[in-house]
Design brief:
With 88 residues, this protein is mostly helical. The chain contains 5 helices and no strands.
Length: 88
């Protein structure tokens, strides 16, 4: 399951906007936007407490987001590297 989709679903249920979520996580609104749209990989759980802050704000069980993010990062990192020319 995608950590971004879990955050979006919880936010939709509770109703906060990206600005509220960013304030709760102590990050920029731009960062939240990039995270939720998949333009930025979820940070490694060991490098940040963002998941605990977001989880607490959205009433998601402790550790769930970090576990999902770790799984998602490992899956993405295990994929073969794409040819850089494909993005030019």
């Amino acid at each position: 399951m995608d950590v971004c989709l879990v955050i979006q679903a919880a936010a939709g249920r509770i109703g906060p906007g990206q600005r509220d979520l960013a304030a709760a996580a102590k990050v920029t609104e731009s960062y939240i936007s990039q995270l939720l749209t998949g333009k930025k990989l979820p940070p490694e759980p060991s490098r940040t407490d963002i998941y605990e802050k977001i989880g607490k704000f959205l009433k998601i069980p402790s550790g769930k987001l970090a576990k999902l993010a770790d799984h998602q990062r490992r899956k993405i990192e295990a994929q073969p590297q794409r040819n850089a020319q494909a993005f030019v």
